[in-house]
Amino acid sequence: GQNIDQPTEMTATEGAIVQINCTYQTSGFNGLFWYQQHAGEAPTFLSYNVLDGLEEKGRFSSFLSRSKGYSYLLLKELQMKDSASYLCAVRAIKAAGNKLTFGGGTRVLVKP
Amino acid sequence: GAVVSQHPSWVICKSGTSVKIECRSLDFQATTMFWYRQFPKQSLMLMATSNEGSKATYEQGVEKDKFLINHASLTLSTLTVTSAHPEDSSFYICSATPGLAGGNEQYFGPGTRLTVT
Lengths: 112, 117
Hints:
The structure holds two protein chains of two kinds.
Chain A: E1 3-5, E2 9-13, E3 18-25, E4 29-37, E5 44-49, E6 53-57, E7 60-65, E8 70-75, E9 84-92, E10 100-102, E11 106-111
Chain B: E1 4-7, E2 10-13, E3 19-25, E4 32-38, E5 45-51, E6 57-58, E7 67-73, E8 76-81, E9 90-97, E10 107-108, E11 112-116
Parallel strand pairs in B: 2-11
Antiparallel strand pairs in B: 1-3, 3-8, 4-5, 4-9, 5-6, 7-8, 9-10, 9-11
């Protein structure tokens, strides 16, 4: 099976940087995704990593280390609208149809 | 980007009745659709994987006779909650993937909030 861990909650100040860590254990790793979800809404795609290293997309970056089973999502220049849950999800090679397993999600609260 | 719709966005039903939720991919053909449920302040829990023209694959612990899934076409999957009970009240979210040719991403619908009274 798969085991995905991420912190439950984080608080940060507007304009600051926050790093959300995700550790996973899976057989046949085939990609890690980060999604953002505002309360009562569907998740929206943020990033995808399948090779080691850093992927940067504007204010958001995601890092992956396959040997360590570790990823982080970095949010820079935090804005109030970034208050949301951030979900780490892992896909396994043998997962039928790109099935994802989600971590518990990290609620980020951005304070003024 | 790809758009997935769900209908209805919310529904209230009485205990014992059945409710059908539709998931449509609007601008792409979805070889696979997924159904999740999400309780308040919790993450998404995969219920089943639905492939067009074949039976859905249910996750362990999900009752296939209670949560009926039909994937009749490449753009439509339906989830029917049969004989609903208050404990079935949840946020149900579908997602769709175009398959290998369309990339890796799953596109999520806006979700359906089900309340069973």
